[in-house]
Amino acid sequence: MGLCALLAAACAKPSARIDGTLTDAPGRQVIVKLLDINNYEVLDSVKTDAAGKYSYKVPVQKGQPEFVYLYYGDTKISSLLLQEGDQVKVVTDTLGRGTVVGSIESERLQEVERKFAEFLREAERAEDNATANRAYVQYYRDAVKYVMSNPFSLTVVPVLFQNVNPDLPVFSQITDAIHFRNALDSLSTVYPDSKYVKALERETTRREGILGFDAKLAMAPETDYPDIKSKDINGNDVSLSALDSKAIILFFWTVTDPESKILNQETYKPVYEDYHDKGLEIFAVSLDTDKAAWAGVVKSQELPWVNVNDGLGAASPAATLYNVTSLPQAYLILDGKILDRRIEGEKALRRELDKVLK
Known about the structure:
Layout lengths: L2 H9 L3 E8 L6 E8 L2 E9 L5 E7 L6 E7 L2 E8 L4 E6 L5 E4 L2 H22 L3 H21 L6 H5 L2 E3 L2 E2 L7 H14 L4 H25 L9 E3 L5 E3 L7 E7 L4 H18 L4 E7 L4 H10 L5 E3 L8 H5 L7 E6 L2 E2 L6 H12 L2
Parallel strand pairs: 1-7, 13-14, 14-15
Antiparallel strand pairs: 1-4, 2-3, 2-5, 5-6, 7-8, 9-10, 11-12, 13-16, 16-17
């Protein structure tokens, strides 16, 4: 190799190359975006030639693969996971239908996204909650299998962070901290400097803290119902077990759910007014991540009972302890024991309260 070639190689910046074709779209703009943990950073836009072809070099450091996404307008046309030195060929139409060649990790990422999109469509088409829950359980099992089967692939990171909706992660169980730890331990041996692995480490630490909290609960003296400790609207620590009431309505809700707010006003407030002096308390657990919005609704609806929120949304330990799978959801605790049958409607609730509150 000549001196000029050696100097050029030494000065070349680490990168990956994308050679793309946007079919039937000559002279159009393709936007290149980089995933920056929680946000997309626009790197550049490239114009297709008369044949719809374009090329772009993405800066990629050794040992630090990057998640790169190609957009046509607002439509994502390709998802790539690129390592230093990758040379990929991307052929898609303007709707994102196409192929990626030259990167096994990118092919895996495309398949991961395809399966998740199929699950979301299936859940959306479900005619009832039972069907939707079955779809979720099956997808969760498949996701766990994928994470366990691909311990050294960075594609497990987006799988672990998938959300069914803003308040419901796919990996929503407390014990999922174990899957996060296993993935982190494996990926750290291959990509110790990756920002995505570092983000995974932060989430693993958070989840292990919740798992440790759950273990402490399990070791605590046995009670007839799991205790909940959280913060009330004033930031004070409140626990369910500290309530000295013959009857307690444990209510899981969210301010983004209209049905929950209707229940507050039309059912629970009248019941509370009639039975509170006889020994009823309501312990309302909000699964909102926006604590300001939650506090605003509590004040505007003038909810007089105990209102708590830990800010963790669907990942709240309280939701896991009580197997909350949909909202709103309520339990009735009478004389220290959870009623083992479902109560439908205000009249049925009042009948149960009349039995213990004289």
